[in-house]
Each structure stands twice: as C-alpha cells, then as structure tokens.
Amino acid sequence: MWRLGLIKKLFSMSRKFILTKEETLPENRLTIAYRDELNEQQFQVATIGNGPVLVVAGAGTGKTRTLIYRVAYLVETGVAPEHIVLLTFTRRSSNEMLNRAAGLLDGRCKRVRGGTFHAFCLTILKQYASKLDYPNNFTILDASDAADVIDVVRSTSSINTKGKRFPRKGTLQSIFSSVRNKGVAVGQVLEAGYPQFGAFTQEIELLFEEYSRYKQKHGLMDYDDLLIMTLKLFSKDPAVLFEIASSCRHVLVDEYQDTNRTQSLIVKALASVHGNVMVVGDDAQSIYRFRGADFKNIIGFPTEYAGSTVLKLEHNYRSTQSILDLANHLLSQAKRKFDKQLFTLKEGGDLPGLVPAPDDRFESRFVSQLILQLREQGIALREMAVLFRNGHNSFDLEIELGRKNIPFVKYGGLKLAEAAHIKDVLAYLKVIENPRDTVAWNRILQLLEGVGPKTAGQIIEWIEADQDDSFELKERPFSTAYIESLRALFVMLRSVKTSESTPTSQVEAVLAYYLPVLKRVYYEDFQKREQDLEHLIGLTVSFGKRSELLDSLVLDPIELTVIDVEAVKDDEPPLTLSTIHSAKGLEFKVVFIIHAMDGIIPSSYSVGDDESIEEELRLLYVAVTRAADHLYISYPSLQYRRYDGQYFTQPSRFLESVPEDILELCSLVEQDPVELPSHPAPNQLTSSGTPNQ
DNA sequence: ACAAGCAGTTTTTTT
DNA sequence: AACTGCTTGT
C-alpha cells in the first residue's frame, strides 16, 4: 500500500515555472453573451480565472448549466477541449453536459475528456496496465463478480466457515469495499458496521489478502481497483503522472460531495501540474456515504488547496416557494447545520401533499390516475417522475402503469448486465477476451449439465495449468458425464475467438450456443429472458471491439427497462421512475415520492446510527428538491409481510414535525369512474382530512 | 463424492 | 428473484 504522504511528496516534486498568463479574448469577441445568459453568481463561476475553485451550489441553482458555460468559456478563451477533464457522477450526466456544451459552440466541446471517475481511470489503466503487472486485457469485476471471486477464494482457503454464522460472499464484498474506500482496517469496518462478525476479524483479514492476490494473479480488477490502481500507478511512476497531469489543464468535478477519499486524491493528482481544479457540489445533498463518500472532501477543499476561491450559487430557479419551504424545513431537522436557505422568485405554488393510501394498490392507483389527469392538463409524461427509496418499491406501480398503458423508463434497481442470463452470455465473451478470467470460466462451466462447483474448479485448474489460450481441449481425466458438452463449448469458444468478426456477430454466435442452455436452466421464464438477449444484440452494434463492449456494460450499466425506451422511441416520451439515488441532478415539473413511510425512508437499516439517519434525511431532501411545480408524497398505511401478515405503517419520521401549512395532509376518496370531471385541478382529487384507513 | 432439486429465508442505495 | 441449507439421486 502506498501512503498519503508519498503522494503529497510526489506532487511537490515537479518543479514549477511561472508563465505569464496568455491574454484572454476580450469579452466582446466571445460568441456567447455570458453576462446576459447567466446571473451574477453563475457568471463569476463560468468566467473565473485559473486556480482552485470550490463552488457550493444548492439544489436547483443551475449548477449543470453553469458548468456547461464554464466549459464553453474555457474553450472559447483558447483552452484545447482535450485538455479539459470533466468528471461527473454518471456517464449520463457527462454526455448530457458535453452535448449541451457542444450545442453552445457548434461542436467544439465534443473533444472534452470526461466521464465517471471509474471510466476515466479505466482509460488510463488500459494504457499503463503493464506498469502494474497487469495485462492490458484485464477484466473488470462488477460487485457480484467480485463476490463470486471472494467465494472461490473462501472455498479454496482453509478457513472454517462452519459453526457460527460467517458473512456471505456479498457481505464480504461490501466489507472489503468499505475497507478500501474509507481507507480503514478490516477490524474498524466490522466494528462500525458489522459487529456480529467481530469474532471473524482474523479470518476476514486473511480472506481480504487472498482476494487481492487472486485478482492480481488472474488479471482481474474490481471497481475499487480502478481508482486505487490509478493512484498506485501515479505513485509508482511519477513520469506517468506528470504526463497525464500535464494534459489536464483544467479539471472540473461535479457532485464533489459524493467523492470518496481515493477520488479526491485522484483529483489532486490530475491537478498537480496546472492547479486548475473546479469542484462543484452541495454538502446537503451528500447521499453516498455508504460507499465511502465523505462530505469532508467538499468542506475541507479550501484547506486542502491553498489560495482557493469559494463561490456560491444560491438562487433556485427550479422549485416554487412552497416546495422550497418543505425542503428548508427538512434541512432544519439535521443535526449538522447547513448555512443555506434556498430562495426562489417562483412565489407561492401548490402546497406539497402528503397522501396516506390504504395500501400498495391504492397508492399505485392514486399515482397513475393523477399522472393521467395531469397529462390531460397538458403536462407531458417526460416532465413527471415517481421517486422511491428502493428499486423494488415501484413493482406494484409498474404493473398498474402497464395496465393503464402509461409508458415509463425506470432508473435504478436491477441493471441489464446484472441479470443472470446476461451475465452468462457476457461470461463466454470474457473468457475469449481474457482466458485467465476464472470467474467467467466458473460461470460457464457450471452451465454444463453434470458440472457443479467442484468439477468446475477442477477443470479450471487444468485449463490454467495449460497456459494455452487457443481453447484446445487437452488430454485430461474428464468424466464421460460432461466431456461431450465440454467439447462443444470449446468448439464454440474457438470459433468465436478466431472469427475476428464484429461484436454483434460474436454475440450472435454465442447466443446460438447459449439458447438451448437458457431453455434448460431457466425453463420457468426463459421467454422473458430471451427478450433481454435480443435487446443485448441491439446494444452491441455501436461497439467496434469486443473489449469495449464488455467494459462499457460493466461501467455504464444499462437499466433493465431501457428496453421500453427503445420501444416507444417514436411515441410519447415516457414517464420517469427512479430510485432517489439515480434521480440525482435531474428535475421534473411533477414529482411523486412513493413509499415514504418509516422503515423505508429512513431505511430500517439506518435506524440506530445517527450518521445514517442524517443521510436518509438528506436523501429525502434530494427527492423533494427534484420537483419544480408539484410534489406529492404518499405511502401505504397497510403493508404485508410474508410471515407476520399485515401491519400498520407510520409516515416517514422526517415528515412528522412538518406543519400543515407546509405539507398538506390529503385523503383518497373512491368515486365512480363516470363521475370524474374531465379537467380537475390536482387538489380536487384529494381533500384535506384524516387519513383514510 | 458431487450434482441437482426443493424449501425456506432474505433483499438499500451505486460505480 | 436469488441465495443458503437440506435432501435425494446418480
């Protein structure tokens, strides 16, 4: 492990020469009228000179827009687009920003580099992998791949997992990820988050070491490695750091409050030559503590970067005053105080509504009916969103929307690349790409009839011993139970490997082999899964290389229901369903927050830990501030749990102390469909009163 | 000895 | 829906 001190020393090593600042274009020769199109605070941000800058931007203050103008300004004043690095949270927001910036300057911003930290680091690592003793065709493990590797390591190690309850593979994976993202010891992570496994500290530490060794040996990198290995590369080879940092004349980071320690060190490294780093964020919207994000990064920025400028964006252009009142009230409940009060010129507006529904079904009917009515009133579906805490909170609503023929896209929850059948298909391609990828081998071997964990492990040992990437089946004591199907598998792998065809035809070739397997293994619902595979073929056409397809699917996971987007491409733009986490940075005219009961928001997992509860509060704050004009918060009063039957719920504790002149309590009243007026105002559907139970 | 099938439990949020 | 632990079958 490298040390923080070493990195710091590294940065100070590069000698600095002071150049006189190149003359910037006079303002009147710029093509964009920055002063007219931005407010004073935004203008400052967009046009500020060199040096470190922290922008504290409240929700809805035009942060994205300002960053776009910043990029445009830099390009216009002579910075080459490829010397600008724009790090954003999702590739979705990165693309949106670059497209909008390109629109401002007729395409000149297209060559700005950027994307997520992980994607950006990947491009560096692909180039310099050999310096870290990795092959440059290394495989990226997603969270469940990583868990599978941990499982393999555990079963081959001599650790006794019997007796008392030993953590499962997925739990181990999150423990290891915390260790690395927070930079603390295994023992500390266990103590803080998993006290029940404290007795296994030694075993878990051992596994952690073995897991790291295994990845190195087999050319595997998990998500955390992409970041940490990049830092390691920088500290191992200062010349590489210097070369990369030299090409980063301006580093811009969005959502800085959600970066972790490693990411902040990467930013520091990238800015180590030119020192031009602008980070934008809002500590009140920090919602990724669970994966190591630390809002201290944003708070501590001015101390970390001497001579930095702090700018603020406080004018909210998005929401009505009524919605901001609720948002401000939520923030006032936080233990850690925020020095921000958002203000808007959009006075008044309907009060946000709190709607207790009798149960799930009523909640879904309420939301979908109101959506239809608002659409009648001229609000497009694409301007409305339903937000929720957990991916599965919308299942019932999804059925109802389907019934009412309301098109929707869902963000968050299950990703296409996480579905078992997609992982199967990708595993064949991964093995062809990197024959040392034992996780993928393990997966595809176990799809053979008569091969389970033990036999798969045995076959993998033989394959590894061969050190031969040509997929020839050598003489081994194979059992007759599976030898024929194993032979068929190798024939397929060899023919795809040697075909040198496009990723699309490679996927098609794999599918020809895989479809019978699919039907046997998933005989219950293979038809549904077959559709996803069709969708996968559609996705492959934009890739020129197999490795690009594989990397992209891991780093930029396609949401499962994006299928629906394709289907309705020419029709009405769909309604958005999203987890609150995935809705970060987005805005909608109408927002529904569903399942807003205690135990969901805040999650029952966070109860008992003040810091976690605070994060849940910020999460609700983020959800509320997505809304521009109308906000409805609902929850089912009655829930079913499989074993203890029905039980009554409480609304989220964060909403309990909110006075009725900020959040209006509504009730649902059932009415004959014929009686429905054709153009009711949203408030007429609900009337103030006691909850209807 | 190992694979396959069944039953019962458990599920946050994301790169 | 997927994972674990248990039982049955080869």
Counting DSSP H or I runs of 4 or more residues, the number of helices is: 29
> Main β-sheet: number of strands, strand sense, barrel status?
9 strands, mixed
Estimate the strand proportion: 5-15%
The quaternary structure here is single chain
Low-confidence stretches: 1-6, 562-568, 675-693
Number of distinct beta strands: 19
Distance between the termini: 58 Å
Class from helix and strand fractions: alpha/beta
Helix content: 40-55%
Principal-axes shape call: globular
Mean pLDDT: 84
Radius of gyration: 27 Å
Main traits of this protein?
single chain, 693 residues, alpha/beta, nine-stranded mixed beta sheet, globular, disordered N terminus, DNA-binding
Element layout with pairings:
Layout: H1 4-13, H2 34-37, H3 40-47, E1 53-57, H4 63-76, E2 84-87, H5 91-104, E3 113-115, H6 117-128, E4 139-141, H7 143-156, H8 169-182, H9 186-193, H10 201-218, E5 220-222, H11 223-236, H12 238-246, E6 250-253, H13 261-270, E7 277-281, H14 296-299, H15 301-304, E8 309-313, E9 315-316, H16 321-332, E10 343-344, E11 353-359, H17 360-376, E12 384-388, H18 395-403, E13 408-411, H19 420-433, H20 438-445, H21 453-466, H22 483-499, H23 503-521, H24 526-540, H25 546-555, H26 562-567, E14 575-579, E15 588-593, H27 610-624, E16 627-641, E17 645-648, H28 653-656, E18 664-668, H29 682-685, E19 686-688
Parallel strand pairs: 1-7, 1-8, 2-3, 2-6, 4-5, 6-7, 9-10, 11-16, 11-18, 12-14, 12-15, 13-14, 15-16
Antiparallel strand pairs: 16-17, 18-19
The chain binds a DNA duplex (15 and 10 nucleotides) through residues 89-90, 116-119, 142-143, 168-170, 223-224, 226-227, 287-288, 290-291, 389-392, 412, 414-415, 420, 449-455, 481, 554-557, 579-582, 600, 603-606, 615, 619, 642-643.
